[in-house]
Amino acid sequence: MKFYDKVIQSKLFLEKNTQIKPKVGIILGSGLGSLVDDIEVEASIGYDLIPYFPKSSLEGHAGNLVFGKLGLYDVMVMQGRFHFYEGFEMKEVTYPIFVMKEMGVTHLLITNACGGINPDFTPGDLMIIDDFINGVGTNPLHGPNDARLGVRFPDMSDPYNSELRQVARDVAHDLKIDYKEGIYAFFQGPYYETRAEIKMYGRLGADAIGMSTVPETIVSNYLGLKTLGISVITNMATGLRDGAHSHQEVVEIANKASLALVKWVKAILESDQL
User: Which of 127, 172, 211, 237 is catalytic?
Assistant: First the structure.
C-alpha cells in the first residue's frame, strides 16, 4: 500500500473514534505530557491501535493520540513522539503529521526537551525556536514526491511561523514568563554529543541541540501547517556542564519546567490569534 493510502486509512480509523475536528496539532516531548491534564479530553487512542502508526516505548512518552478542547480550539495531541534514533525511517517519525493534516489541522505546536549550547542559557529555561539546523544526512522528504501531499521543493525561509512566534512573545510578556529565543540543532543520537561536536554546532550558530523536532518541522512546512516550536532546556550540553548526562535528569527537569510551559501553551490557545 502506498504511503498516501496508509495516511488515509489512519485518518478514517480516527474519524470513527472521535467527533473532534482538530485545528491545532500539538507534539509533547519528553516529560511534557502533563499538558493533557488541562485538555477537555473527548478521546484518547493508543498508538498501537491506529493502523500504520509507529510504536514507541521510550521513557517519558505515553504513546497516546489525544483529542479534545484546549482554550478556544479543538486539538489533536501526540502524547509522546517517535525518534530517528529508535530505528524508524524518517517517514515513520513524521507519519502522525501527515495524518494531522488530513484530519484538518492547520497549526502545529511542537515542544521538546533539549540541551543548551548558548552559555546564557540555564536548565529549566524555555526557548522559542527561531530556526533549525538539520545535522542528520537525510530528511523525511527524501525519495519520490506525492503531489497530493505537497510540492517537490518546499520553502523553509520561515519554518517557525513569524506570526506565531510573535503571539508567543506577547503571551509570555502578559504572563511574565521568562523565555529565550534561538536556533535548534537536530542531532541523531541516541548518544549525547561529544565536546567537539557541541563546539562545532555552537560555531554553526546553534543555541540548543536535541534529537527530535526538525523532521516534524520539515514535514509541517511541506504540508503548509503554520508551526511554532518551544524547547525546554533540560541540561547544558557536553563541555558546558559538570558530570555525565542522563535521560532521567532530562525528564525530571522537563517535568519541573512543564508548569510554566503548560501555562504558556494554554494562554496561546486561549488567545484568538491562531
Answer: 211
Which residues, including other chains, have CB under 8 Å from residue 68's CB and lie 6 or more apart? 20, 39, 40, 41, 42, 43, 74, 75, 77
State how far the Cα of 38 lies from the Cα of 52, in Å rounded to an integer.
28
**At 229, phi and psi to the nearest 5?**
-120, 135
Whether residue 235 lies in the annotated active site: yes
* Alpha helices, DSSP H, located in the chain: 3-17, 90-93, 95-103, 162-175, 195-204, 214-222, 247-270
Please pick, among 17, 43, 73, 86, the residue that the annotation labels catalytic. Answer: 86
Instruction: Answer whether 237's CB lies under 8 Å from 249's CB.
Output: no
Percent of the chain at pLDDT > 70 equals 94
**245 annotated active-site:** no
- Nearest in space to 196 (alpha carbons), one of 236, 247, 237, 244: 237
- Burial (0-12, 13-18, 19+ Cβ within 10 Å), 69: middle
Q: Which amino acid is at 248?
A: Q
86 is catalytic: yes
pLDDT in tens, 67-91: 999 999 999 999 989 999 999 999 9
**Angle at CA 144, nearest 5°, toward 9 and 83?**
65
Buried/exposed code over 117-146 (b: 16+ C-beta within 10 A; e: otherwise): bbeebebbbbbbbbbbbebbeebbbeeeee
- Gap between the Cα atoms of 232 and 104, Å rounded: 28
177 grid coordinates: 514568563
pLDDT tens column, 100-113: 999 999 999 999 98
Give pTM, 2 decimals.
0.94
Give the C-alpha separation, 132 to 209, whole Å: 9
206, three cell numbers: 546553534
